[in-house]
Amino acid sequence: MITVTGASGHIGNVLVKKLLKQGEEVRVLVLPHDDLTPIKGLEVEIVEGDVCDLPSLLPAFKGTRMVYHLAGIITISTGNEDFIYQVNVVGTRNVVDACIQCGVTRLIYTSSVHAFREPPPGVVIDESCTFYTNSLRGVYDRTKAQASMEVIEGVQKGLNAVIVAPSGVVGPCDYRISQLGHMILSFARGDLPGYVEGAYDFVDVRDVAEGMILAAQKGKPGEIYILSGERITVDELMLKLQKITGKKPPRFKAPLWLAKALGRVANIYYGISGAKPLITEYSADVLASNSMISCDKARRDLGYDPRPLEHSIEDSLQWFYENGHLNIGKNESSGLY
Q1: Which pTM value belongs to this model?
Q2: Can you tell me whether residue 237 is helix, strand or coil?
Q3: pLDDT (0 to 100) of residue 306
Q4: Which CATH architecture describes the domain 2-177+202-233+290-306?
């Protein structure tokens, strides 16, 4: 039996489907009243619980040989820091303790490349970078680093655990519509008001799920594996989207200094309106950050092999189209839509 927390998330639902396809028995930990659309119809055992409540984890972990821990809060906005800390850090601490109490033989924790201390521009980010638990860029970065340290402490207590650290995730089965998915949809619908200069590394959700399975099979206890994909500038991303959809990019491109200023105002607006943000001060900081990220260790030790980003974008758009999020004409040049 394998237990997955965060199974209804983007990576989680893709991981569960891959595990089932491999013939594994899968148990999923879900919050009461959680939206289970992403795993609807799958042959999984469902157990209600909350990573913030250690006793509720025990029924989900008993009799389990392996736990994939993905439950967490991903945010590019400000606010709710106490709640994010409880879920990301205390929740991970509880998962580690529950694994030890229940005799789980393997834990695979999904951290993030944002958890690492960022080296100067031009220096590659790899597993030699330390987790930066005092990051000032945002609560997400800080709590993912702190949660990763909880797993390392568990390893020191004898837990067989591996940490994986994906970069920005894109791809199909994006039921809750991720940040990049939201931007891709806005571009395809023709209502993206503008874009920001900068660059980042994006990886296909299916490759992340496969990398996690490879880490479970081949990863050494206590090791960290970066699961990155392809670094791309936002200008290049716009051109790829134009090629795939046949639509022209927005004319307005904000320089990073302006994006950061707009992001500070946007934090207030999105906090009041509840709308999904396209840009915040944090996301502008990320696009300006060092995004030279290496997955060489995962390639070498695990056999990890991420696909080209263009394929991920095409499949993401196809999934949005097939699931009613997109209604646009066919692009004759690419044969899509």
Answers
A1: 0.90
A2: helix
A3: 97
A4: 3-Layer(aba) Sandwich (3.40)
